[in-house]
Amino acid sequence: QVQLVESGGGSVQVGGSLRLSCVASGFAYCMAWFRQAPGKEREGVAYITSIGTATYADPVKGRFNISRENAKKTLYLQMSSLKPEDTAMYYCAAFRGSLCRLVAAEFDYWGQGTQVTVSS
User: Fold this and answer.
1) Could you report the average pLDDT of every consecutive run of 10 residues in the chain (120 residues)?
2) What pLDDT sits at residue 96?
3) Angle at the Cα of 45 (from 69 to 32), degrees rounded to 5?
4) Distances from the Cα of 77 to the Cα of 1, 39, 115, angstroms
5) CB under 8 Å to 79, separation ≥6 — which residues?
């Protein structure tokens, strides 16, 4: 079992920045951020492997940066140039397998989520 605890969400204005953190209780090769807005399906934001390979969803490319500190078992998501459409509950997820993809069904462990609200 890997427990995940997110923090760092909040309310910001358009164009602002936030940094989300996720502390894990164990090691996972693949860690990712997903988000879910009201009335919408959960969507992948970005993932990063333990060796630093990262992939981003098109809507956040160039604005978000995912990183991790393996020694601290902590995952980060630096979000910049935030838009109203980034408003969602953000979830940290972990997968212990070796094939990392932004597919929610493939992740074994999930955090409780942290809310991000972007207002104009």
Assistant:
1) 96 98 95 97 97 97 97 97 98 92 95 97
2) 86
3) 35
4) 23, 23, 13
5) 17, 18, 19, 20, 60, 63, 64, 86, 116
